[in-house]
């Protein structure tokens, strides 16, 4: 009896799902404040420099190799270059090691940066908590932080990623970061889908707003790696200011392990982390056939071993599927180039930002069109990724509230609220994605979807999936 009721509901759910697809998914009726906040003032506590002479500030870490045994530690010293050394040790161990880094500065329009340090630590133990200390040397102020390395890559290693994009430095940005940090799902590494500081919204792209952003985010990114993707606000391309070379502030401040994946540019690269293989792409670099990014990505697919890292995740800034009016179809040319690969290689999920709102797609593709066949609408495709737009970090430009109507069939759920996401990988077959809006309590899930691994569990029909 109970079984038949469940079966009936499952069938009804399946039916409704199909009907839903034909008319489009859910546009959330959640009523939010239409006001958005300005950037936090320069004297805000979140921007305060640490005490002490030449104390390291804007401390941030990211993965430093391809496997997860490396960490790049970056920081800024304001007064003098100071030391490039990182002292690090395993929790409760007396055996301390040193790693030596580099220091650089850059100029941008009227601005000259502080001393930006980057130090790569390699050959760390997997799944281990380390302490690390910066600002060594007599007369300087040192600071100590911790991080935990991921488990060795493996098919059933649970791991929890946070998702954030288009963060900026408003009061809403601060709420987003706090919600992420207090989410009981506990993200272990953050996947950041581009548009960091929004310094370029200021006259002369006031780069002191890169510094404030570095100090604001330190409370998370000094303790867990953020995996960086470049957005349009990282371009800082301003010929009128004499700045002809794009990405100078971003690439000076945020180093990534691109060479470890055979990339020739920090704007596209890949890493393995626990049970995930993560490919980072650049929406604002050439991606057509024969370009360096295209050739690198073409060579990347055979390297993905789904037996070792079952979860194949792609990050980019400009979404390939977006039903908001803002930035509508801006990702279309990259979709034409790369979507067939995403389907062929069974990418599980593609995360993007750029649109200041949240949206989750159905599992669809649109790769049949060949200029004469007229087949140009997205269709359900079990080999295709789900596309999630998570550009709702809360920056100074506010929410993208205007949506295309009616909601297209590829769009499963959309809502213009600030928030963050969590990708909670359970094992090789199941991962739980959840989206959390800032207006809710820290534990509240506003939208969610069980993801069934495209390689190990290609069918959507699953008892767990219907929970
Ligand atoms: Fe953007």
From TrEMBL:
Protein name: Purple acid phosphatase
EC top class named in words: hydrolase
EC code: 3.1.3.2
Species this chain originates from: Kalanchoe fedtschenkoi (Lavender scallops)
Range of residues in the leader sequence: 1-21
Family: Belongs to the metallophosphoesterase superfamily. Purple acid phosphatase family.
Cofactor(s) listed: Fe cation; Zn(2+)
Residues annotated as domain Fibronectin type-III: 55-152
InterPro entries: Calcineurin-like_PHP, FN3_dom, Metallo-depent_PP-like, MPP_PAP, PAPs-like, PAPs_C, PAPs_N, Purple_acid_Pase-like_N
One Pfam family linked to the record: Metallophos
Molecular function GO terms recorded: acid phosphatase activity; metal ion binding
Catalytic activity: a phosphate monoester + H2O = an alcohol + phosphate
Annotated keywords: Glycoprotein, Hydrolase, Iron, Metal-binding, Signal, Zinc
Domain of life: Eukaryota
């Amino acid at each position: 009896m109970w079984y038949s009721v469940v079966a009936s509901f499952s069938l009804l759910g399946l039916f409704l799902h199909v009907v839903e697809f034909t008319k489009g998914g859910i546009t959330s009726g959640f009523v939010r404040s239409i006001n958005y906040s300005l950037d936090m003032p320069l004297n805000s506590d979140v921007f305060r420099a640490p005490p002490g002479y030449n104390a390291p500030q804007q401390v941030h870490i990211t993965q430093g190799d391809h496997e997860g045994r490396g960490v790049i530690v970056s920081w800024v010293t304001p007064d003098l270059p100071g030391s490039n050394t990182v002292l690090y040790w395993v929790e409760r161990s007396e055996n301390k090691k040193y790693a030596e880094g580099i220091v650089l500065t850059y100029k941008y329009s009227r601005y000259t940066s502080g001393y930006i340090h980057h130090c790569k630590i390699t050959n760390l133990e997997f799944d281990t908590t380390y302490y690390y200390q910066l600002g060594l040397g007599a007369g300087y102020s040192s600071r100590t932080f911790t991080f935990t390395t991921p488990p060795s890559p493996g098919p059933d290693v649970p791991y929890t990623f946070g998702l954030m994009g288009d963060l900026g430095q408003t009061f809403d940005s601060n709420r987003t970061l706090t919600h992420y940090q207090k989410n009981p799902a506990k993200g272990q590494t953050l996947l950041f889908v581009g548009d960091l500081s929004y310094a370029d919204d200021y006259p002369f792209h006031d780069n002191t707003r890169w510094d404030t952003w570095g100090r604001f985010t330190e409370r998370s990114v000094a303790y867990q790696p953020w995996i960086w993707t470049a957005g349009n606000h990282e371009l800082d391309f301003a010929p009128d200011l004499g700045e002809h070379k794009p990405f100078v502030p971003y690439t000076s401040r945020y180093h990534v392990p691109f060479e470890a994946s055979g990339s020739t540019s920090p704007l596209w690269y890949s890493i393995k982390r626990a049970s995930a293989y993560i490919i980072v792409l650049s929406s604002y670099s050439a991606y057509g056939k024969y370009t360096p990014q295209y050739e690198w990505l073409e060579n990347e697919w055979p390297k993905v071993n789904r037996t070792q890292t079952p979860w194949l995740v792609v990050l980019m800034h400009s979404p390939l599927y977006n039903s908001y009016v803002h930035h509508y179809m801006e990702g279309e040319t990259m979709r034409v180039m790369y979507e067939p690969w995403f389907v062929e290689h069974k990418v599980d999920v593609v995360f993007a930002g750029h649109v200041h709102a949240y949206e989750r797609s159905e599992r669809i593709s649109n790769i049949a069109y060949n200029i004469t066949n007229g087949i140009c609408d997205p269709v359900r495709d079990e080999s295709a990724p789900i596309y999630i737009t998570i550009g709702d970090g809360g920056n100074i430009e506010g929410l993208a509230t205007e949506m295309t109507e009616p909601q297209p069939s590829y769009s499963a759920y959309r809502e213009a609220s600030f928030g963050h996401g969590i990708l909670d990988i359970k094992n090789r077959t199941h991962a739980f994605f959840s989206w959390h809006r800032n207006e809710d309590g820290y534990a509240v899930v506003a939208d969610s979807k069980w993801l069934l691994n495209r390689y190990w569990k290609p069918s959507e029909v699953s008892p767990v999936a219907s929970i």
